[in-house]
Design goal:
Helices cover 49% and strands 21% of the residues. It has 212 residues and is α/β, with parallel strands linked by helices. The chain has a 7-stranded mixed β-sheet with strand order 2-7-5-4-3-1-6. A hairpin with a 4-residue loop joins strand 3 and strand 4. About 6% of the residues have low confidence.
């Protein structure tokens, strides 16, 4: 019986230790601070991209965000300067969309990725309502843009050929078919006639040879 009580006390002690550790960890997480500003960003209410990045056409979003900063330097309401962990989310492609597309049909797309604060940090409540979180821009490399500039010319040539073919009337197609049939018949007739002439020539030669 005593052993059972000892085990129960030991388990209770372990559970209390784990619980208190969780409470302390949660408290540390929630008390990291409120951010009053980011270094070199949003001065005088002007919000500009903190960086411009280029990626290869077809790059997946994980490869894109891997290029972006993992932390941003910020100042807390207490005056302390800290490195805030951030993640990045695409909010615009500047063409009407709000998601990143590895192979966008329009390679002139310029994506806006907005910073998301890590656990325990939040924006101070005294910041303006129209405050814009730090952001970066991401575009495709120059090679992809040059390839896209050549595409309209190719499309124009293809469309012209298609328009020419579709612009031919039914009678035009009928005439072309008749011409092709006539050419085939004439060629066949010439070939068949040549073959018959050769056979007649051989027959005449045989007859003359037989007479001798």
């Amino acid at each position: 019986m005593k052993n059972v009580r000892r085990i129960a006390k030991w388990l209770m002690a372990c559970m209390m230790t784990v619980f208190l550790a969780g409470v302390v960890s949660a408290a540390e997480t929630t008390e990291k601070g409120e951010i009053s500003s980011f270094n070199n960003y949003g001065e005088n209410g002007v919000y500009e991209a903190i960086g411009e990045y280029e990626v290869a056409y077809g790059s997946v979003v994980a490869d894109v965000t891997r290029k972006l900063p993992s932390t941003l330097t910020a100042k807390l309401t207490t005056g302390e300067e800290v490195e805030v962990p951030v993640t990045w989310v695409c909010v615009s492609d500047n063409l009407g969309g709000n998601t990143y597309v590895p192979k966008h049909s329009d390679v002139s797309a310029v994506y806006t990725f907005e910073a998301q604060l890590g656990d325990g940090y939040k924006i101070a409540g005294n910041l303006p309502e129209d405050y814009v979180m730090p952001f970066v821009t991401v575009s495709y490399t120059q090679d992809a843009q040059e390839l896209n500039s050549q595409a309209p010319e190719m499309d124009t040539e293809i469309n012209a050929a298609v328009d020419t073919a579709s612009g031919m009337s039914v009678w035009s197609w009928i005439i072309w078919i008749i011409v092709i049939v006539i050419i085939v018949v004439v060629l066949w007739w010439l070939f068949a006639g040549s073959k018959n002439n050769k056979e007649k020539l051989h027959a005449v030669i045989k007859m003359k040879t037989g007479c001798r």
